[in-house]
Amino acid sequence: MHNYLCVMKQALVVPEKMMQSSLCVGLLLLLLIVAAAARSASAIMDGLLPNGNFEEAPDKSQMNGTRVTGRYAIPHWEISGFVEYVRSGQQLGDMLLPVPEGAYAVRLGNEASILQGLTLVRGERYSVTFSAARTCAQAELLNVTVTPDVGEVPIQTVYTSSGWDSYSWAFRAKHSAVSLIVHNPGVSEDAACGPLIDAFAIKILQCPQSLNDNLLKNGGFEEGPYIFPNTSWGVMVPPMDEDDYSPLSPWTILADTKSVKYVDAAHYAVPGGARAVELVAGMEAALVQEVSTVPGQSYRLEFSVGDAGDGCAGSLSVKAYASHGSVTAPYESHGTGGHSRASLEFAATEERTRVVFVSMAYTTKPDGTLCGPVVDDASLVARHSRRRLLL
Ligand SMILES: *[C@@H]1O[C@H](CO)[C@@H](O)[C@H](O)[C@H]1NC(C)=O
Ligand SMILES: *[C@@H]1O[C@H](CO)[C@@H](O)[C@H](O)[C@H]1NC(C)=O
Ligand SMILES: *[C@@H]1O[C@H](CO)[C@@H](O)[C@H](O)[C@H]1NC(C)=O
C-alpha cells in the first residue's frame, strides 16, 4: 500500500504535513480503492510470464528444423526474424546446450525479436527478470523494450559456469497495455551465433522508504528484481542510463558493460535480511546511490562486507567513497559466509553526495564463476541530526 502513497507523493507533490490532514487522507483512500480496483482488473501477477519459460512448444507444422516459421507459433509470444526453438541437451554447433528453466529455450538470430503483450498497472514500477546465454558472437547485448521505454542489457560477460545468467531490467509503466520486446540488435556473420533466452518473470517494485535516520533508501537491498525461488544463481543488475529506472532503486550500477549480482538468503549467505549484492565485476561496476546532504555537515556511512557463502575464497575487499572520503574494508573469505561492519566518516561538500561501493579485485571460483564480496545493510546518518539540533 505504501507503494501508492509513494507514487502519488511524487505525482502530486503533496508535502509531508498536508498528508496528515484528514481531507487528504480521505482523498488518498479513495484513490487507493480506485487503484486497487484497477489492479485487480487483469494486471499481471509477480512471477513467471505466460509461457515465460517456453515450455509450451510451437506446433511442428510451424517449424522447419529448429527454426520457428509462424509469427504466432510460440504460445503467448509473437516473433519476428530468425528465431529458433531449442531443446536442452541439443547440440548447437560445437556447444552442448543446457537450459536454465525446464527443457526449452529460444535463440534470437540476427535482428530477431520476440514480443509478449502485458497488462500492467499504470504508474507502477516493474522489474523484468530473464535468463540469457551468449553464444559465439563477441560484444553481445539485448535491447529490451517495454513500450515506450528501451534499454540495453549487455550480456557479453559470462558470470556463471553454466553459461546462463539471469538479468533484470526495470521500467515504470506508462500505459496499462504494453509490449515487452526483446531484440537481438546483433548482425553476426554466423546467424546461429545469436543469444539464447529463457525464463521471463515480472515483479512490481515497491517504492523504497528511508528508515529512521538513514539517508540511504533500500540500504539493505531488500527491494529488488524477481529471483526465481528455485534458481540458485541470483540475478544480475546491469548498468543503465541515468534516466532509466533501476531494478535496485534508488541504487544504480555505474559501469560500461559489467553488472552486479543480486543474491537471496535462500541460496547465499546474506549479512542481513533476505537479499544482498555481490560485487562480481571488480572495479568495473560500481554500486551507487545519491543522497541529499548539507555542505559542511558530518556524516557517518556504515555497511556490511562479507562473502556470500558461495565458495568465493580469498582476500576480498570493498572500497566505499563518499564526498572526498573513502575507506577500504578488507574481508578474508573462506567462502563459507560471514561478514563484518565497516564505516566511513566524512563531511559533505555538496548538496548531493554520491555513495559508491566497488570491489577492489576480480575473484573467480575454481569452476570459472565470477564472484566477489557482498555488500549489505548500508546506512548514512548525519553525525548530529537536524532534529536533535532543533530540540
Ligand atoms: C526448411 O529450411 C531449409 C533450409 O533453409 C529449406 O531448404 C527448406 O526449403 C525449408 N523447408 C520448408 C518447408 O520451408
Ligand atoms: C522451478 O519450479 C517450477 C515449478 O514450480 C518448475 O517448472 C521449474 O522447472 C523449476 N526450475 C528449476 C530450475 O528447477
Ligand atoms: C537497440 O538496438 C539498435 C540497433 O538495432 C541500436 O541502434 C540502439 O541504440 C539500441 N539501443 C536502444 C536503447 O535503442
TrEMBL record:
Domain DUF642: 47-203, 214-378
Main location: other
Leader sequence residues: 1-43
GO cellular component, one term: extracellular region
Protein name: DUF642 domain-containing protein
Matches recorded under InterPro entries: DGR2-like_dom (IPR006946), Pectin_Meth_Modulator (IPR052437)
Keywords attached to this entry: Glycoprotein, Secreted, Signal
Cell compartments where the protein resides: Cell envelope; Secreted
Listed Pfam families: DUF642 (PF04862)
